[in-house]
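Re: the request from the purification team.
They wanted to know what the chain is likely to look like in 3D before they choose a buffer screen. I agreed to run a prediction and write the result into the notebook, where they can find it.
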Amino acid sequence: MARLKVGLVVCMTLVACGAPGPLDSLEPGERGRVVRVVDGDTIVLDTGQSVRLVGIEAPSGGYRDRAPQPYHTESKRMMEDMVLGREVQLHYGGLTRDRYDRALAHAQTVDALGPTFWLNAEMVKRGGARVRVYPDTAAANAPLLKFERDARREEIGLWRAVEYRIPYASDLPKAYEGFQLVRGQVSGMRGAEGFGAVCDLSLQNSALRLQIQTAAASLCQEALGLGVLARGYVRGDEMEISHPLNFELVEAPTN
């Protein structure tokens, strides 16, 4: 009987505590109430602190002569419906501020006004943002990739829009500039020409080169001949791959 009681106590303790979550290993940061949503990846707290959610890229709004990106309004509203007026806890896993003094963080709701949301993950799950990983804020980003794959498969949120369909690198317009996901097959590797890069990977039937940065150096040898899904900023026929999570091995294209 005593052994049974001990077992029940252990079981209840495990249930109460739960398994460690992705945010548990991060450094707790500030708390605050969300008083403004800038867009689907940026919020403002009642302390005046702006917060840029890491690991995700939501459609941006218009600025000066630049038009809003497709699905910006829907993404912003998605975030507003989820978090406006609620208290959130910030979590840091690397660099804590950018050049605009925005907090670079994961954020989680911590009040009793609604469900507990890990905002970074929830925006990806709902198709309000794509995954974008930077080396200095990559902690706890890996689970976001599965959430994005699920959202893409179900065509949730922005994945229903033609503008966010993932092209083959060979179909990417030559003058394209911006953050993008592309598919392709790695056809060659050469020494890099750009600062901080260790190699350039070429893609079959495409002028686009994947510029592999130091943090992702292992990809230079691992990816030859394989199908890939790459994500990064495209400029002048180059896409910078700054972290291994921005580069997934997939089935090679058949065309």
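For the purification team: The CA atoms of residues 177 and 234 lie 5 Å apart.
Please add any questions underneath this entry.
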